[in-house]
Amino acid sequence: MPSRKFADGEVVRGRWPGSSLYYEVEILSHDSNSQLYNVKYKDGTELELKESDIKPLTSFRQRKSGSTSSSPSRRRGSRSRSRSRSPGRLPKGSRRSASASYQADLKEARKEAKKDMLEVKLTPLVLVRVFGSPPASHSEKFHLSQESSYIPTQYSLRARREEIKLKEVDLKEETVVTKRPALLRTSEVTATQSKDLEFGGVPGAFLIMLGLPAFLFLLLLMCKQKEPSLLNFPPPLPALGDLWETRVFGVYLLWFLLQALFHLLPIGKVRLSCFFWNVELYYVYHHFLQFALAAVVFAMGLSVYLYARALKAPQDELSPASSGNAIYDFFIGRELNPRIGTFDLKYFCELRPGLIGWVVINLVMLLAEMKEQNRAAPSLAMILVNSFQLLYVVDALWNEEALLTTMDIIHDGFGFMLAFGDLVWVPFIYSFQAFYLVSHPNELSWPMASLIIALKLCGFVIFRCANSQKNAFRKNPTDPRLAHLKTIHTSTGKNLLVSGWWGFVRHPNYLGDLIMALAWSLPCGFNHILPYFYVIYFTILLVHREARDEHHCRKKYGLAWEKYCQRVPYRIFPYIY
Ligand code: NDP
Q1: Average pLDDT of every residue of the chain
Q2: Residue 502 CB less than 6 A away from ligand 1
Q3: Which of 102, 118, 134 is the last residue of a domain?
Q4: Strand locations in 105-150, DSSP E?
Q5: Is 45 contained in some domain?
Q6: Does residue 214 sit in the same domain as residue 111?
Q7: In angstroms, how far is the first alpha carbon of the chain from the final one?
Q8: How many Cβ atoms are within 10 Å of 168's Cβ, its own excluded?
Q9: Using CA atoms, how far apart are residues 554 and 92, in angstroms rounded to an integer?
């Protein structure tokens, strides 16, 4: 039986996950399989800790009263001067004004470090109670100040080598022992393993992975029917052999590699090159289901590759969403931003093959409509769908740097969820209205078309202005063009906008996006619900995404977020939700 160092009931010091702070804890039990101790903090929080994150009480130097890290005034002081880059970094201000007592503390800490101990007083990291009295669960109880959060808020596309150099410079500046990063990683893993999982946890992730590809094919098959009413469900299924053609897979692969080449070429913002004009686009319509299957197979293969390489990735490159569970991590992505050299796989897939593929498929459908319906020109409905969605994609590519602050890049790993979403779901489902129009023509009147155009523009203005306002504010909070906007100060040093678009609802960009989604479906008329699938699905996606973002922001900003919610009570739809 493996030996254990601490006995049940023993009072010791346990490290707070993600920080170098040690608090008094009681050992509740020990799991001999995982070698983890179940410990209880004084406020009632129960966590699992590794033995290396637990120290006997006697190994901590008794501190003078008034200088303890639990003093609220001291906490606040260190928090406001804090920086986010390195969890163990000392407050900048305190480095500059190094007082005699501080230097003495420092010497003391170095001595302590030699004994493989960490000194609480020297870390700027603090725990902040969000709500007054001790609440029930850990996630509601505390919000960790910025240093403790290992969720970065901005992703850098710098080459890893440069990042490592920067980190090394950072570490040299650290005055506290070099052993800390190793310790930090171990407890990060312990912390992620015990956290709540999103998307229904492991069973949810498993079902989504099984269900989504099947659902995609059912939708496409439904749409191919002459009468795509829900009453005609299930649609006739094709023979399995008809779904696969190696040549189609080869064309798909070529498409992906060409996109990668374009991504690597330094051709600035002009990207939608029309190299594909010479390709027989109608071929894609004829083999649409086969292309969808090729994309599914490719996305699955990519997910397997991503998971396999992530097993060797260093702990500090794992996604904050990863859990340690193989199924869940395969789904959500274990590695945060996997790269081959300087080629960032997630960033590339998020923007290029899927989005540009969507535009190409729409064009294919436009040509297919003319051919199938013997038209000299595309229908007004098809032109609207194509131009609305082209505008959306061009806007996304033009403002591509905005991607660097999204949840996809900074929180979720790169696994099945994003690989399937980017490479299959976006091109094959977002082009659904155009696909529908090929075999279900809808003649639009000009007054109706004008109304739809007005709706699309209204959605676009809300979407673009809201996103640009926040991005400009995040880039430069003192931007004179934003001086008229009101803000709420938060303990992380970042402020929240409470007027302008972000004072209207808490996610005005989602509102604009949903209005646009409706405008994309309306040109298909009202005969069937199928072309409205996108609006329904997108509403569910954004409501769920809003809840996830809200959860992260509440953790990040604590009371300031509560205040924001009071000032701006509606999430997406004013006076409704
Ligand atoms: P958002 O652009 O909505 O960003 C959310 C973040 O903004 C928060 O985490 C917070 O981050 C910051 N924030 C929130 N409130 C405020 C405030 N009041 N003042 C300042 N900052 C604030 O994130 P998404 O990635 O979800 O969406 C980006 C765009 O992509 C949206 O327009 C969305 O509609 C679109 N989208 C489209 C999808 C599609 O399939 N077509 C799918 C998903 C999204 P912090 O404070 O750390 O900066």
Answers
A1: 77
A2: yes
A3: 118
A4: 127-129, 142-144
A5: yes
A6: no
A7: 56
A8: 10
A9: 26
Atom nearest to 568 CA in ligand 1: 18
Q: Whose CA is nearest to atom 34 of ligand 1?
A: 510
125 and 262: one domain?
no
What CATH number does residue 38 fall under?
2.30.30.140
Whose C-alpha lies nearest to ligand 1, atom 23? Answer: 406
The protein residue whose alpha carbon is closest to atom 21 in ligand 1 is 496
507 lines ligand 1 (CB under 6 A): yes
Whether residue 396 is found in the same domain as residue 496 = no
Q: Tell me: pLDDT of 538 over 50.
A: yes
Pair (19, 97) in one structural domain: no
Instruction: Give residue 531 CA to ligand 1 midpoint distance, Å.
Output: 26
Name the band, by pLDDT with cuts 50, 70 and 90, for residue 355.
very high
Tokens of 85: 């880059």
Ligand 1 neighbour 470 (Cβ under 6 A):
yes
pTM: 0.68
Question: What separation in Å is there between the alpha carbon of 508 and the centre of ligand 1?
Answer: 9
Centroid of ligand 1 to alpha carbon of 262 (angstroms): 28
**Residue 377 lies in domain:** 200-269+286-442
Residue whose Cα lies nearest atom 32 of ligand 1: it is 509
Nearest CA to ligand 1 atom 47: 153
Assess contact for 18 and 143: CB atoms under 8 A.
no
- Determine the distance separating the centroid of ligand 1 and the alpha carbon of 549, expressed in angstroms: 8
Ligand 1 in contact with 555 (CB < 6 A)? no
Whose C-alpha lies nearest to ligand 1, atom 25? 406
Domain count, the chain: 4
CB atoms within 10 A of CB 212: 17
Residues 438 and 448 in one domain: no
Residue 195 resides in a domain: no
What is the DSSP annotation of 291-339? HHHHHHHHHHHHHHHHHHHHTTS-GGGB-TT--S-HHHHHHH-SBSS-E
Which among 405, 495, 501 is the best mutation to test ligand 1's pocket, defined by most ligand atoms within 8 Å of the CB?
405
In a domain, 5, yes or no: no
How far does residue 235's CA lie from ligand 1's centre (Å)?
37
How confident is the model over 164-207, as pLDDT tens digits? 555 555 455 443 333 333 333 333 444 444 567 888 899 999 99
Reported as type and span, the H/E element at residue 558 is none
**CA of residue 469 relative to chain centroid, distance:** 20
**150 alpha carbon – ligand 1 mean position (Å):** 19
pLDDT in tens, 361-416: 999 999 999 988 999 999 999 999 999 999 999 999 898 888 887 888 888 899 99
Give the per-residue SS3 of 222-271: HHHCCCCCHHHCCCCCCCHHHHCCHHHHHHHHHHHHHHHHHHHCCCCCCC
Same domain, 36 and 182: yes
Residue 314 sits in the same domain as residue 325:
yes
Q: Is 44 part of any domain?
A: yes
Q: How far is the CA of 21 from the centre of ligand 1 (A)?
A: 32
Final residue of a domain: which of 145, 162, 190?
A: 190
How far, in Å, from the CA of 205 to the mean position of ligand 1?
Answer: 23
Residues 6+ apart with CB under 8 A from 114: none
Same domain, 243 and 365: yes
